[in-house]
Design a protein that fits this description.
Blueprint: E1 6-9, H1 10-14, E2 18-19, H2 31-48, E3 56-65, E4 71-75, H3 77-90, H4 106-123, H5 128-140, E5 142-149, H6 152-161, H7 171-181, H8 186-197, H9 201-218, H10 246-251, H11 267-289, H12 294-300, H13 309-315, H14 321-341, H15 346-362, H16 368-375, H17 389-395, H18 400-403, H19 421-430
Parallel strand pairs: 2-4, 3-5
Antiparallel strand pairs: 1-5, 3-4
Helix pairs in contact: 2-4, 3-4, 6-7, 8-11, 9-14, 11-14, 14-15, 14-17, 15-19
Length: 434
């Protein structure tokens, strides 16, 4: 791996044959970020007057040198484009290859325009001497650490292992990078990036953490840990060159996915994420809009009527951790059920809800370790029901196997903790007990 770091001035970096690859996310720096950058440079100029050979580094960038001898920006786009805006204002004659990039994304266009306006307004109150000093600082004071590699997979490995703010990248970030590398059509890649960036990053993370990864494991009666970078092979899919696989057959009827089956790597990954985010949203909307599930809605929201899936999610924040575990278990079961049978059979939904909530009734204290054991049907005298329901759904041939599933209540009319007696009474009423 040719990745020995070099120290370049901002001016030197901007003069390189830089391009922004199609897989890059939009430019999202705001006027606040730009102002902070200007103030940092201003402070570094002041420090340089006190100390000889003073330098100020603003982070690390990762570049991929492609076969056309262009430097693709893999990491550091936000700082590079912001520095370019500043350079263009300080030196009206400045030209570089980066200016040839077509910025088609609307978010990028707006932020570039707004941030250049911020720069122009900030320097409107100073004379040309100050502008010249700032321009000189970009040549002689402000630096970046530059890591250049010749292979795109090496660039992504570096990108996967670090970022300039020190945040460990989430597994879904790594999956995004992996599957973009598997897309060979320029416009298909652009479409995938636009779809991905239009989504709330937190919602993507929760889709994997709370639903997809647990269901994948519980369907196989395996305990589920935290979704980490060590687990991403599950969602790398199958390379398209391998024929006669489930994934290849399913791809002919896209969008068609199953939670427990693989898919063709590349653009199908982004379709899969979009598919299950929409399915999860639709399931939650069904719970709050279908009169047959009104009692379930009220239990989930602690008696509050809500009007949207977003409000339903917000209602979770005011509840105990244990109750949230039980509710997430219900939506895992319902997502798995709907994914397989594509119906909202009232009895089946009630059975899944009762099964998920009974673990809250049975336990004085409920943590995720207990949810893990309960979900895969590990025997425990405290549990009223010992059934690996996610696995049962996965292998069921008809939805009536779920709607006809036998569930037991407790031997008395009380929950394990009196805090949940009211919830238990509601569950009993939901299931026709007096």
């Amino acid at each position: 791996m040719n990745s020995k770091p070099h120290i370049w001035s901002i001016d030197k970096l901007l003069r390189k044959n830089l391009i922004i690859p199609d897989y890059q996310r939009p430019y999202k720096w705001t006027d606040k970020n730009i102002t902070e950058l200007i103030l940092d440079i201003q402070k570094s100029i002041e420090e340089s007057r006190k100390y000889d050979n003073f330098k100020y580094r603003i982070g690390t960038v990762i570049l991929h040198r492609n076969e056309n001898n262009e430097y693709e920006i893999v990491d550091g786009q936000q700082r590079i484009l912001s520095s370019l805006l500043l350079k263009l204002h300080l030196d009206s004659n400045f030209m570089c290859n980066l200016l040839n990039n077509k910025f088609l994304n609307k978010i990028t266009q707006k932020n570039l325009h707004d941030n250049y306006t911020t720069i122009r307004e900030w320097f409107s109150s100073v004379d040309d001497t100050v502008k010249a000093i700032f321009n000189d600082a970009l040549k002689n004071i402000i630096e970046v650490v530059v890591i250049t590699v010749n292979r795109i997979d090496e660039a992504f490995q570096l990108f996967d292992s670090q970022n300039t703010r020190g945040r460990v990248l989430y597994p879904h970030d790594l999956l995004k990078a992996y599957h973009l590398r598997e897309i060979h059509d320029k416009y298909e890649m652009q479409n995938a990036v636009v779809k991905w960036e239009s989504k709330d990053p937190k919602a993507i993370r929760e889709l994997f953490d709370l639903y997809l990864f647990p269901i994948w494991n519980w369907a196989k009666c395996l305990k589920c840990g935290n979704f980490t970078s060590a687990d991403i092979d599950i969602y790398k899919g199958i390379e398209e060159k391998y024929g006669y696989t489930y994934a290849r057959r399913a791809s002919k009827a896209m969008p068609y996915f199953l939670l427990t089956e693989s898919f063709i790597s590349g653009s199908d990954f982004f379709e899969m994420v979009d598919h299950y985010m929409q399915m999860l949203h639709n399931i939650k909307e069904e719970i709050i809009t279908n009169p047959a599930f009104h009692d379930i809605e009220l239990i989930i929201t602690n008696g509050k009527d809500v009007d949207s899936a977003e409000e339903l999610d917000k209602s979770f924040k005011s509840s105990s951790v244990g109750l949230n575990h039980a509710r997430n278990l219900f939506f895992c079961a319902l997502l798995c059920y709907y994914d397989r049978f594509h119906n909202f059979d009232v009895m089946a939904v009630k059975k899944l809800f009762t099964w998920a909530m009974m673990i809250r009734i049975d336990m004085q204290h409920l943590g995720f370790d207990t949810i893990n054991r309960y979900a895969i049907g590990i025997e425990d005298d405290k549990y009223s029901n010992v059934k690996p329901v996610i696995s049962i759904i996965t292998y069921a041939r008809r939805h009536t196997e779920i709607s006809g599933m036998r569930l037991d209540m407790r031997n008395d009319d009380k929950a394990a903790s009196e805090n949940w007696n009211n919830l238990y009474a509601q569950l009993r009423q939901l299931n026709g007990y007096n």
